[in-house]
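[step 3/7] inverse_fold.run input=structure_tokens len=322
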């Protein structure tokens, strides 16, 4: 069976989940693609760090060029996070003729045009399903089955950590700090949770949704953004007393030909479909002019749900390009 050679940039939560899926589900992947996915190199910059998965030592490297410039590698999977050096690594890999898969919402939201144009100029695929709402295949849905619609609105719970925190504060009356530590221990809050709790992570994901739904790139720093650090037990109690729930919502709507957007804690009627989305789950609620309203629901964070979306992109490239 022909082999497709893969290089992983990063072996954190998402990298570990991706490696685990490619290894554990190798048989079904081979059956579905007629090809063998072989991870040949993994960039791991902090060698001392505890790993989620066991990986043969000979696969590990601290030099990104062992992957980006490696003539044997067909697909580069970027999962190191952050805008740089991730963006430069992806651009270099595309210029070397490699297909790129990424889970990195910060880099894609900041450099959407650069990355998509570089892929086009170099005739390679650039897929990033895992960057928005983890395991939920919403970007593929927007770009394929829904592509005949004019999108009217896209709104969602786009951050698992903050949804988990708000859920536990609401349902169990637990204090913010305690719930945040729990979310970090479960692997869906970042070690530095600032981007989650300040709404920056949700703004990055909304920027990508806006690009795909409305064809405009809005720099995430230009999206009016309020996080959840100002939401107190009193607010949650007052909301409950009036039959509402507080959710961190990212929303973009088309009004008179203009796209309006924001990320903010929002009061939702308890009957709204998004109000029932609890814990680390994400959901994206889309209105198209022809299809009407749709909701996509699932796990938006965590090694295996996010790795599932990364692997879906890898398999799509394997099937279409090899
Ligand atoms: N920290 C992010 C979240 C991870 O909590 O949703 C997934 O992007």
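[step 3/7] decode complete -> sequence:
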């Amino acid at each position: 069976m022909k082999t497709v050679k893969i290089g992983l940039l990063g072996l954190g939560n998402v990298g570990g989940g991706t490696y685990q899926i490619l290894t554990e589900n190798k048989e079904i992947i081979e059956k579905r693609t007629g090809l063998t996915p072989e991870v040949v190199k993994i960039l791991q910059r902090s060698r001392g760090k505890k790993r989620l998965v066991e990986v043969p030592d000979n696969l590990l490297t601290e030099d990104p060029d062992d992957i980006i410039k490696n003539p044997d590698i067909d697909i580069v999977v970027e999962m190191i996070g952050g805008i740089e050096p991730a963006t430069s690594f992806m651009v270099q890999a595309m210029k070397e003729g490699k297909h790129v898969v990424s889970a990195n919402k910060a880099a894609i939201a900041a450099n959407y045009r650069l990355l998509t144009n570089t892929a086009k100029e170099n005739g390679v695929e650039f897929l990033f399903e895992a960057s928005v709402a983890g395991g939920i295949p919403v970007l593929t849905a927007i770009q394929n089955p829904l592509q005949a619609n004019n999108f009217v609105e896209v709104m969602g719970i786009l951050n698992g950590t903050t949804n988990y925190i708000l859920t536990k504060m609401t349902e169990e009356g637990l204090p913010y700090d305690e719930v945040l530590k729990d979310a970090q221990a479960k692997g869906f809050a970042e070690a530095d949770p600032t981007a989650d709790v300040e709404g920056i992570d949700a703004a990055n994901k909304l920027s990508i949704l806006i690009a795909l739904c409305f064809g405009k790139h809005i720099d995430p720093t230009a999206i009016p953004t309020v996080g959840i650090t100002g939401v107190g037990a009193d607010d949650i109690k007052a909301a409950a007393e009036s039959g509402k729930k507080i959710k961190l919502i990212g929303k973009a709507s088309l009004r008179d030909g203009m796209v309006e957007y924001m990320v903010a804690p929002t009061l939702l009627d308890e009957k709204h479909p998004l109000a029932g989305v609890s814990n680390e789950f994400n959901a994206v609620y889309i209105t198209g002019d022809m299809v009407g309203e749709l909701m996509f629901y699932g796990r938006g964070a965590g090694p295996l749900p996010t790795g599932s979306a990364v692997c879906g992109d890898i398999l799509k490239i394997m099937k279409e390009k090899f």
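[step 4/7] annotate
The longest helix spans residues 303-321.
Residues 134, 159-161, 188-190, 196, 201, 300-301 surround L-homoserine (CB under 6 Å).
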